[in-house]
Structure prediction request, 501 residues.
Amino acid sequence: MDEFDIDLGRIFRSVLDRSWLVAIVAVLCALIVFVGTFFFVTPKYEAAAMFYVNNNSLSVADASFSISSGDLSTSRNLVKSYLVILNTRETLDSVLDYAGVDQLTYMQLGKMLTAGAVNETEIFQVVVTSTDPGEAEKLANAIAYILPKRIDTIIDGTSAKIVSSAVRPSRPSSPSFTKNTLIGFLAGLLLSVGAIALKEVFDITIRGEEDIARISKLPILAAVPDMMSPGKGSYYYGNGKKQEKQRKQAVRQAWVGDDLPFAATEAYKLLRTKIQYSFSDEKSCHVVGISSALSGEGKSTTSINLSHAMAQAGQKVLLIDCDLRRPSVATKLKLSQEYGLSGFLTRQVSLEQIAQECRMKHGGVYYVIAAGRIPPNPTELLNSVRMEKMIERMAQEFDYIILDLPPVEEVSDALVAAKLADGVLLTVRQDYCNRPALEDTIKQFDFVNGRILGLLMTYAQDRGLGYGKSYYKHYYHRYGKYRHYAKSYEEAYHEQQNVGK
Prediction:
């Protein structure tokens, strides 16, 4: 049996995030109940007659006894006797005859009656409920006339005196629009909150660190903010028409290289630093594989931006697109895809022909080997001796080799190529990847003895990752100007170097 955890804090945050939806559902339910009550519920009217129980002495059949006027308990028992007499067939038939109501039977009339003592006194009340106010009045007054006579003929020495006759009701007693609307509102509120809570309880999507902690103790090395969602990560673009225009332009960008938002750039620099500290040996070159559980989690974007960040730090970097089924590195960097890794592994081109330079705006450079044409046997090519020897040769020339691997849950290519890497970085897209997929991916890498360096959270929002939106806002506004000054300084420096040359 798997553990079934309920995170009340997560449920509360989810309900709070969807408070607008809860309010809409509650108001909609209240409106539906109000309209339904107005058009489909028949109004009912109540007419009431009140009686006083006269109980100075009492005889029933051949037995007789005295009753104290202050004995309320006995008085209540006497009221119960009166109510039994009221609900007999003979009494109800007499009431119908006196009122002249022929369309009702005594059983129907009995269901229209409500009777009982008033506040535990010797006064009891009979209420008639009907859809016709005139009918309710006639039946209540008929009871006021018939019942005392019936009681007098059955119980000796006592009587029921009329305290208040029935009057024609001027407004319906039910339905209550206020009460029903409030009930509808509360029902909508409870239903929407319950639905959100159930969704969160059974949701297996990874929302934050706590979800990852349930399945693995692997560290989250960094979190790259969502660069295309102003609703959640508006600390990049802000609000307004100008920022919305920037956002629409950003959606069309590949989000790689020098044009990243400041917060994303810093996240990749943090990732670069942590990866560098992940290797403690003296190897001259380290091979880092980047993969994910599912497609669409940002592994290719991460591969490019990590290569970019390492090249900025003065490292000599080679990026190899090992996703031979759905390559995207060359497209994102606008490089040639004609000849690449597949061409080299099938001996169509030499290694020198497939390595392409990718120059950065401020003078840095890293090298890229595109995937090339899609081959019919990608797994066999990645598992070939030629691939292994190519990595060994490139390791003599570069400080870092980044392998953009396919997603693990879709194909086995990543597991085959993992043996070539010194460590693997898994990208996990927040609110997209699910716990079973990530857990299975980690188990598969463990099965092939692949070392997982840690996790990178992509498309990260402001919740569940240790740094809230307020932190990013503060950090961005405080250090954002420094970035522009640094860029200006770098541009001036490189211009001076070019003039000197």
Notes: The first strand starts at residue 45 and ends at 54. The two ends are 70 Å apart (CA to CA).
